Amino acid sequence: MRTPFVAGNWKMYKTIAEARNLVSELVPGLQGIQGVERVLCPPYTALLAVRALLEGTDIGLGAQDLHWEEAGAYTGEVSPAMIAELCQYVIIGHSERRAYFGETDETVNRKVQAALGHGLIPIVCVGETLEENEAGRTREVVARQVKNGLERIDLGDESWSDRVSSIVVAYEPVWAIGTGRAATGVGANAVLTDVIRPSLEGLYGTQFAESVRILYGGSVKSDNAAEFFSQSDIDGALVGGASLKASDFIAIVQAAVG
Predict the structure, then answer these.
(1) Is 94 annotated in the active site?
(2) Domain ranges for the chain
(3) For a disulfide at 201, which of 45, 98, 180, 209, Cβ 3.0-4.6 Å?
């Protein structure tokens, strides 16, 4: 059985004061929901403040990106060691990073390995653009992103074993992110069943492919979350805009209970 997983990606929203207010509204509601792993991913500037408010709870904390190097002359970047001081999770390869900041399958792979090497659990994002979808290239693009983004992980490395088994993949069709145009539950599930899990199996075998939790992301809201969570292969959601309002995010997490 795969434990449902719901993460809120706050993107470039919320000052420290605003983050504190949101978490103070979220914690009471989220703490009352059992059987779902819940993770908040605020911007870097709010990580320390949010971490303090989450102490004593079982709500996880994640960053929205990281650099693959331990340290160096990389102005504006944040290393995996820095993230690991505060977080348990990190989002890698989000479509906005790919579209606006030059993220590639190669850099995603380097970041995944860096995250695992520093005790972090990566939430690895994959998904096709509208043009790729309309051209019938969904299978090709998503399979390539999974293969290239998750290759060269040493499953035999005991220091990585717990994190590797906890890797999370998020399928986020780019055409559905922030557009209000969500994929259907059946359509999203088909990509997971026919493309993502087989790609994971091709990399590391059936047991690994069946154990990885795969999320859906892309205009997930409180009124459509249950449609996605009812599907056989969708194990949760990576939530964007709806994670910025406490009542909406709590309702989405509640829907994941089943």
Answers:
(1) yes
(2) 5-255
(3) 209
